[in-house]
Amino acid sequence: MSHSELATSYAALILADDDVDVTADKLQTLIKAANVDDVESIWTTLFAKALDGKNVKDMLLNVGSGGGAAAAPAATGGVTGGAADGPAEEKKEEKKEEEKEESDEDMGFGLFD
After folding, report:
1. pTM of the entire structure?
2. pLDDT above 70 for 77
3. Which residue among 28, 67, 91, 99 is least packed, with the fewest CB closer than 10 Å?
């Protein structure tokens, strides 16, 4: 990360921490107040557009969440009987077959042969 990007990132975090809207002018003002030289206005404009309408605090708190996950399938009760077990068993068999196909032993050579 370049010096300009880092300075702009810190300025954006400071503004977000104070619950101030992140704009290019405010970023530039904060960077100049910190006596950081050589920050082109393109960086402040890019950061301001990227963060426009976004809650930076929420973004930081949800860094490890990884985005939207698929919903878990509903558990089947005892009412359906054994009918739901059929597709699950087929998937397990397909998975085992794929694992066998991927092994190096089937190809007749290994990584270090």
Report:
1. 0.52
2. no
3. 67
